Amino acid sequence: MNILMLAWRDMKNPLKGGAEIVTDNYLAGLAREGHSVTLFSSRFQGSRKSENYHGYTIARSGTPLSVYIEAYKFYKRGNYDLVIDQVNTVPFFTPLYVPRKKRVAFFHQLALDVWFYEKNIAVATIGIVCEWCYLKLYACTRAFVVSNSTKNDLVSYAWMNPKEILVLENQIDFTPMSNVSDKEHAFVFCGRLKKSKRAQDAIRAMVDVDAKLYVIGDGDYKKDLMRLVRKLHLEQKVVFTGQIGLMERDKIMAKSLAILVTSVREGWGLIVTEANANGTIAITYDVPGLRDANKTGIMCRNIKEMRTAMDKMIENPQYHATESITFARTHADWNKNIGRLEKWISH
């Protein structure tokens, strides 16, 4: 098959995140199976217009705003058996120009209440109304998603047929460790530092908790978080590592009592599985995506409950650590997902 995926970013974009990692695994896998695969995405500073990456072609044009128009032009110049419309906040509106049998959508998550964390109330209101409207365009489009939470959202908000939605739970691309490491009196937060990720809640939870918190990552909300640390006098407890390598990240995860994941919502919550693979449970909010991924840890509803869970981990550092590794092993095989996806798109 000649396959085209439309996405706003690719793996070489400096702003890449979990969605791009998942995308790369699927496209590289489909290319290994003999398909001709092209990813179309936006340009960024220093980017090439076209290049080969992991066996598939990356074609780039336009800015993060104009990429949607450029994607339509690019599609019109080619002849594709299948177009995958990756919907990441703003879709590519393929139901308007790609025949139904030749298109599928790929949803990680819906934005919904994330709008109200990242934008002012006026923009957020417009954004969520627009999302509700454009989702209806996809009612007759097959889709694959990363969790049952996203599937349920699409059935509710996009009026999609649940029988035409394939759930492929995200996998990790490294082997889970064999044994649980010795634990320190420390917790870890890892992710992009944006308001909707709510690292501020993880920091507030540290008040009256006798432990250290490692904050791994960077983002536009970092300065606000650092001000919060100073305001709460937690300078001796909270350590901002910035962007670090995977080996160093995994080392911190392995020695931490738990990873704190406080997002408004996630598609799957891949960072939970990655922490599990390092023998560390997750303490998460009970929200879409995280309730799918966090099967061995503790879910909570607010900062108070999170603090109680952290105290529990200090008292019992090995709580469900072995079970977390076992669960991670069930989500460490991308080839399994690629095989299911290939079979699904072919029928």
Number of DSSP-assigned strands: 14
Q: Output the CATH class name of the largest domain.
A: Alpha Beta
The proportion of residues in beta strands is 15-25%
**Broad structural category:** alpha/beta
Amino- and carboxy-terminal Cα gap: 12 Å
The number of distinct helices, counting runs of at least 4 residues, comes to: 13
Corresponding CATH architecture of the largest domain:
3-Layer(aba) Sandwich
Structure description:
By secondary structure, the protein is of the alpha/beta class. It has two domains: 2-171 and 333-346, Glycogen Phosphorylase B (Rossmann fold), CATH 3.40.50; 186-329, Rossmann fold, CATH 3.40.50.2000. It is built from 13 helices and 14 strands. The chain has helices at residues 18-32, 67-76, 115-118, 121-135, 148-157, 199-205, 222-231, 246-255, 270-277, 290-293, 303-315, 321-329, 334-346, and strands at residues 2-6, 36-41, 50-53, 56-60, 82-87, 103-107, 142-145, 165-167, 186-190, 212-216, 238-242, 258-261, 281-285, 298-300. The strands form two sheets. The protein has an eight-stranded mixed sheet with strand order 3-4-2-1-5-6-7-8, sandwiched between helices. Strand 7 (142-145), helix 5 and strand 8 form a beta-alpha-beta unit. Helix 6 (199-205) crosses helix 11 (303-315) and helix 9 crosses helix 12. The protein is globular and about 60 Å long. The model has no long low-confidence stretch (mean pLDDT 95).
